[in-house]
Amino acid sequence: MITAGFAAIAAFSLHSCKPKGAQTAVTGDAASKVYVAPGKFDEFYNIVSGGFNGQMSVYGIPSGRLFRIIPVFSQFPENGWGYSEETKPMLNTSHGFAPWDDLHHIALSTTKGEHDGRWAFGNANNTPRIARVSLSTFRTEEIIEIPNSAGNHSSPFITENSEYVVAGTRFSVPMDNQNGDVPISSYKQNFKGTVSFIKLDTSGHMNLAFQLRLPGINFDLARAGKGKSAGWFFFSCYNSEQANTLLEVNASAKDKDFIMAVNWKKAEEYARAGKGVTENVRYAHNVYDEKTHSATSTIKNTVLVLDPKDCPDMVYFIPCPKSPHGCDVSPDGESIVGSGKLAAVIPVFSYDKIQQAIASKAFDGNYDGIPVIKYEAALRGEVQKPGLGPLHTEFDAKGNAYTSFFVSSEIVKWSLKDLKVLDRVPTYYSIGHLSVPGGPTAKPHGKYVIAYNKITKDRYLPTGPELTQSAQLYSIEGDKMKLLLDFPTTGEPHYAEAIPAELIMKKSRKIYKIEENQHPFVAKGEGQAKVERKGNQVHVYMTSIRSHFTPDNIEGVRMGDEVYFHVTNLEQDWDVPHGFAVKGANNAEILIMPGETQTLKWTPDRVGIFPIYCTDFCSALHQEMQGYVRVSPAGSNVPLTFSTGKTAPAAPEAGGTAGVKTKN
To answer: Tens digits of per-residue pLDDT, 325-368?
Structure first.
């Protein structure tokens, strides 16, 4: 039976497609504020999650221009990610090759709580994984799978100095080292949640340090403390009812769920002191090496698990209005904002009061052995009547907070000082997350707030049953928020972080030095190009340069062969990639950056002549950048030959014995 609260929200939703003020929301000078003149640069990079496309996308702010799509957990035919032999291992998991995932959240690396422009992290929600993307190459460099996890939604969140990336389970499940063949109705007995702490070294390399074994509830979002609260982590939790069916009703039976407070410094001490238990698990750790231009995948088999029952003073619960989504920490680390999706208030908790409550043991019993701090003991105050369906809060540098409201389709600005609502603007429509540049950091950059919306009816030209996803840019420089721009996005933009362009653009890699290329099949010049047979494998050491391949004519390939085109781009100029494709390949092209080597594997399925060509326009003679591969029947004695720029002597009919091996 649907509760009265649910009915009210549903009724409001039916009338919230066009918020009040839609006709006058855009100010007259909006165009000038988002216009970036030809040859000029945007002020911010906006790194946006792709949701169900498993990718990240990069936009300029304030222009809203799309600069790049970064493949992370999904194959990407535009550049061969997940198709080339070098990148396939990046999509390996304990379940095998997993060419898709659901990327919800972005986290940018920080130093002293401030953006430092080194890395972006993303989560795989479906097959639990965390990825690290270099912000100098805009390429995924590392992916680590998370054992003992399901629905890796509550991630990735980072500590103040990027010591750890932290990930929590959305779905509680039986642990990997247990017999999972249990009745679903035994949820309360057999299902557990985890929070994983992934250690980063100075190069960004990730290592699964330890996990916390937690009650079988759902974790939604989290933020690390900063400043005075830097040694703590705060998570929103729902389904404290531990329901396993029809959660929209059964996981909302109680008035309150929890914010979970974790003393991660103490957890780290317990791990070092040997308080954890090493469990047998299975997970993949995939690393891309920029020197060899290749990825390796390693299966690992153990994880250290800490149980709060054996580690006192490590984990606490704080009651929060039911079904919280966002859990956000103010720039000074003092205020922790919870967002109960079904609440009519926004609770703001005090870090100082939480510490006082712990010291005085102001507890209201425990939940599965974990102390529950009294709501009033931790509460700093409540934002009254802010809107319907609060989700996520970020902050500016002026002491203000901005919260997204899904049901009432709006952004609400309120004061951290007195918790009073200051302003509200409509969004179009059903906003999910929002982003203030630097909003989750100790030093927000402010200036804009960006809404990421779930519905765009009547905002864009129709494109069939599904319309584009969207973002909207608002100015927050004055007392009142002002809508400046709508721009479409790829995938479903769940969350994003915006960072000043100056922190990234000067570090951007332009080429890979050919002399530093350590790929095992590199050809560092045309004189090193060759074709070799190893049994039924044919390895083509190929070079590309404007505007030809070496070699560009290959004969002697036979049915049953596996052909590996190892293509090295000899260019040493910025923004001169070369593509490579072969007719009939059942994977994708590869796109090779200057100085890089990438490999396309091709298994011919018929006898004949197969064109090869460059797929990326590189010069006036791009169309001429092509060649041919001859495939003969299995058992043929056509010799293996290759050439570029030289015409071989006339050969006998197909199946003959003559052939000339030539090259430049």
So the answer is: 999 999 999 999 998 888 889 999 999 999 999 999 999 999 99
Name residue 546's amino acid: R
DSSP-derived pairing of the beta strands 206-214 and 294-306: parallel
Both tokens assigned to 531: 């074709």
Q: What is the DSSP letter of 527?
A: G
Supply 321's token pair: 């209005």
What is the pTM for the complete model shown?
0.93
The closest alpha carbon to 340, from 373, 387, 378, 374, belongs to: 387
According to DSSP, the β-strands at 626-632 and 553-558 are parallel
* pLDDT of res. 542: 98
Strands (E), 218-293: 218-224, 232-238, 256-263, 277-289
pLDDT in tens, 235-272: 999 999 999 999 989 888 899 999 999 999 999 999 99
Q: How far apart are CA 486 and CA 467, in angstroms?
A: 14
User: Taking the CA of residue 555 as centre, how many other CA atoms within 13 Å lie in the half-sphere pointing to its CB?
Assistant: 21
Give the separation between CA 107 and CA 91, rounded to whole angstroms. Answer: 20
- Distance, in Å, from the CA atom of 439 to the CA atom of 435, rounded to the nearest integer, reads 7
| pLDDT tens, position by position, 382-416 | 999 999 999 999 999 999 999 999 999 999 999 99
Q: Which residue has the tokens 């908790």?
A: 349
In whole angstroms, give the CA distance from residue 306 to residue 308.
6
Q: Tens digits of per-residue pLDDT, 408-453?
A: 999 999 999 999 999 999 999 999 999 999 999 999 999 999 999 9
Q: Using an 8 Å Cβ cutoff, are 590 and 80 in contact?
A: yes
* Contact present, 69 and 55 (Cβ < 8 Å): yes
- Decide if 626 contacts 618 (C-beta within 8 A): no
Q: d(Cα 71, Cα 26) in Å, to the nearest integer?
A: 34
Which residues, including other chains, have CB under 8 Å from residue 38's CB and lie 6 or more apart? none
Asked if 139 and 132 count as a contact pair (C-beta separation under 8 A), the reply is no
Residue 101 φ then ψ, to 5°: -165, 180
Q: What Rg, from alpha-carbon coordinates, does the chain have? A: 28
Q: Are strands 390-395 and 400-405 parallel, antiparallel or unpaired?
A: antiparallel
Measured distance CA(188)–CA(228) in Å, rounded: 36
Instruction: Give the confidence band of 649 by pLDDT, cuts at 50, 70, 90.
Output: low
DSSP state of 118: E
What are the DSSP calls for 184-228, one per residue? GGGHHHH-BEEEEEEEE-TT--EEEEEEEEE-S-EEEEEEE--GG
- Those residues whose C-beta lies under 8 Å from the C-beta of residue 99, and which sit 6 or more positions away, are 74, 75, 82, 91
- C-alpha 242/C-alpha 256 separation (Å) is 13
3-state secondary structure of 482: strand
Angle at 60 between CA 56 and CA 64, to 5 degrees: 95
The amino acid sitting at 268 is: E
Q: Are 504 and 135 in contact (CB under 8 A)?
A: yes
H or E element at residue 124: strand 114-124
Collapsing DSSP to helix, strand or coil, 150 comes out as coil
CB-based contacts of 202: which residues, under 8 Å, 6+ apart? none
C-alpha 493/C-alpha 574 separation (Å) is 30
Q: Which two tokens stand for residue 300?
A: 């690992």
**For 78-100, how does the pLDDT look when each residue is reduced to its tens digit (9 = 90+)?**
999 999 999 999 999 999 999 99
